[in-house]
Amino acid sequence: MNRFPAIAIASGKGGTGKTTVAVHLAAALLFQKRTVQYLDCDVEEPNGHLFLKPLIDSVEPAGIPVPVVDAARCTSCGKCAQVCEFNAIALLKKPLTFPELCHGCGACALVCPVGAIREEPRAIGVVESGQAGATTIVQGRLTIGEPMSPPLIRAVKARRDPRAIALFDAPPGTACPFATTVRGADFVLLVAEPTPFGLHDLVLAIETLRPLGVPLGVVVNRADEDRRVQDFCAANGVPVLAELPDDRRVAETYARGELLFDRLPEWRGHFENLWARIEELL
Amino acid sequence: MKVAITSSAQTLADPIDMHFGRAKVFILADTETGRAVAHDNAQNLHAAQGAGIQSAETVARLGAETVITGSVGPKAYRALQEAGIKIALVEAVCPGTEALRRFKNDELPVLDKPNSEGHWV
Ligand code: SF4
Ligand code: SF4
C-alpha cells in the first residue's frame, strides 16, 4: 500500500462540515506522527487555515495564458475562432477575445497560420504555502469574481509532496472544480448531513465519482435519528466510515476557530477510527 | 437594410425569441425587398459557454446590420459592438412581423448597454 496516499475530502454542497472533518483528520494523523500536507483546493473560500493556523511564507501568483492577437499580422482567416472549444474567440471583423472564458489550452496560438497570436498570463489568484507545526499547508486563493478555478486548483495540486499524506479539501458541489480536485486522489471521503437535502447532494456526488472508479466512503456529520443517508449507502454498497454525533460544543469550538481535541479529547478517537477505516479501503 | 430577428420558429409570423444568445432561429429580413430567410441557431443553443458570442458571430456572418431581440448579455453585446451591429429592443414577445413593422417605424429603442446578466456565462 502507498504510505503517502492522497485523500480528497468533499461534499455535495457547502456547510456540511467538510473542512471540520478535513482539519481534524489532519490533526489526528499528526498525533500518529504521520507527515501530512493539507492542500486547500476550495479556492473560492479556503478556510482550513483558520483552524490549522499556518505561517504563510510563500505567495505565488497563478494565471492562465490567454491569447493576444496582433491585428497587424492577422489575416482574419478565422482558424483561431474555429478551434476554440470554449467560444473564447469570435471572428468579427478581426478576432475578438474573451479572456474570462479562455481555458488557456493554447490551441488558437498553435493553429494561427501567420503567428499573430501570442500568450499573456491573466492572473486568476495566488497559491500560498506555509507550515503549521509539522503540517505543510498549500492553499489556492481565487481572485474574487473570477469564474475559472480549475487552473488554480491544478497549481495547488502541483505542489503536492510525494513524501506526505495529502489531504485535498475539495470545493463544494459536483462541477468542474470538484472533478479537478478529486482527479488523481486515491480515496474520496464524502461528508454528508442526515437530511433529505444532504442525501440528495450525496447521491449527486456519488454519481459523479462512480465512473472515475476511485474508492470512496461517507462520513455522516451531525448524525441523528434520521437514517436515510446510512440506508442509501447500505443499499448501494457505499461504506459509511464514521457517524459523528451532533454535539453543540463542536459548533462552539468551530466558531472560535479552535481544534476539538484540546477541549473534547474523545473526538480524537472518532478521527483515528476514521483514518483506520480509510486505510483498510486503500 | 438587413436585420436579424431572433425567433422561436421558422417564419416571421412566429413569436420572436426574447434571448439573443440562446435564440432558436435567426430570421434575416431585408427591409427593402421584404425577403425573409430563417437560419437555425440550434448549435449555439447547446453551447456550454459563450453562446451569445457565437450568436453574434453568426449574425455578423449573415451580414445583418441590426439585430431585433429582447435581451443581450454582456459578452454578446461586446461582440455585436465590435461587428458594428446595432441592437433594437422589443419589450415583450410578439410576432416577427410586428417587431419588424415597429422597427421600420422607428418605434423600437436602440440598446446602448447589455440588458441581461448572461445567465449561462
Ligand atoms: S487558449 Fe484555448 S481556450 Fe483560450 S482562446 Fe485559445 S483556443 Fe480558446
Ligand atoms: S488564426 Fe491568426 S490570422 Fe487567423 S484570424 Fe486568428 S489570429 Fe488572425
Describe the structure.
The complex is a heterodimer of chains A (282) and B (121). With 282 residues, chain A is an alpha/beta fold. Chain A is built from eleven helices and eleven strands. Chain A has helices spanning 18-31, 49-52, 79-83, 107-111, 150-157, 176-182, 196-209, 228-236, 248-255, 260-263, 266-281, and strands spanning 6-10, 36-40, 55-69, 89-91, 95-97, 117-132, 135-142, 165-169, 187-192, 216-223, 240-245. In chain A, strand 6 and strand 7 form a beta hairpin. In chain A, helix 1 (18-31) crosses helix 11 and helix 5 (150-157) packs parallel to helix 6. The longest helix of chain A is centred in the last third of the chain and has 16 residues, at 266-281. The termini of chain A are close together. Chain B has four helices and five strands; from the N terminus they run E-E-E-H-H-E-H-E-H. Classes of the chains: A alpha/beta (282), B alpha/beta (121). The complex binds iron/sulfur cluster (SF4) (2 copies). One iron/sulfur cluster binds at residues 69, 74-80, 91, 95, 112, 114, 116-117 of chain A.
CATH architecture of the largest domain in chain A: 3-Layer(aba) Sandwich
- Greatest contact between two chains: A-B, 13 and 17 residues
SS elements, strand count of chain A = 11
The total tally of domains of chain A equals 2
Category from helices, strands and their pairing of chain B: alpha/beta
Low-confidence stretches of chain A: none
Tell me the number of structural domains of chain B: 1
Mean pLDDT of chain A: 92
What is the arithmetic mean of pLDDT of chain B?
A: 90
Net shape of chain B: globular
Order of helices and strands of chain B: EEEHHEHEH
Any idea what the CATH superfamily of the largest domain in chain A is called? P-loop containing nucleotide triphosphate hydrolases
CATH architecture of chain B: 2-Layer Sandwich
CATH H level, superfamily name of chain B: Dinitrogenase iron-molybdenum cofactor biosynthesis domain
| Tally of contiguous helical segments of chain B | 4
Please report the number of helical segments of chain A. 11
Please describe the biggest sheet of chain A, giving its number of strands, its sense, and whether it closes into a barrel. Answer: 9 strands, mixed
Specify Rg of chain B, calculated over alpha carbons.
Answer: 13 Å
